[in-house]
């Protein structure tokens, strides 16, 4: 059974944060959260999740409510360095799925 990783970000007034939670067999196995700079974009929580789970040697499904993040990972040519790195990670690791 694949591990599920849920991602989300939040921006309130002048503060922005990101969080991830992984589950296996319906139990929370790991959580992570951080405060982000206002210069960060809404794409970054999902991209951080890809980098975070890339070291796992198991099948992983990343669940996101950010359609723009998932769409940003589809085109082959993108200008954003962080998106390019995430695409390379996804291409090199068939165990990571987005949804």
Give structural attributes.
99 residues; alpha/beta; Nucleotidyltransferase, domain 5; 3 helices; 28% helix
Describe the protein's architecture and organization.
There is one protein chain. The chain has 99 residues and is α/β, with parallel strands linked by helices. The chain has one domain: Ribonuclease H-like superfamily/Ribonuclease H (Nucleotidyltransferase, domain 5). The protein is built from three helices and five strands; from the N terminus they run E-E-E-H-E-H-H-E. The protein has helices at residues 44-53, 67-72, 81-92, and strands at residues 3-12, 15-24, 27-36, 60-63, 96-98. A five-stranded mixed beta sheet has the order 3-2-1-4-5, covered by helices on one side. A hairpin with a 2-residue loop joins strand 2 and strand 3 (27-36). The chain is globular, with a radius of gyration of 13 Å. This is RNase H type-1 domain-containing protein. InterPro entries: RNaseH_sf. It comes from Araneus ventricosus.
């Amino acid at each position: 059974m694949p591990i599920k990783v849920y991602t989300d970000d939040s921006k309130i007034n002048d503060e922005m944060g990101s969080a991830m939670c992984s589950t296996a067999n319906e139990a929370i196995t790991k959580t992570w959260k951080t405060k982000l700079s206002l210069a960060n974009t809404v794409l970054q929580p999902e991209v951080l999740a890809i980098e975070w789970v890339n070291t796992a040697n198991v099948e992983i499904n990343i669940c996101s409510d950010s359609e723009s993040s998932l769409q940003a990972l589809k085109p082959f040519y993108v200008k954003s360095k962080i998106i390019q790195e995430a695409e390379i990670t996804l291409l090199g690791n068939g165990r990571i799925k987005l949804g």
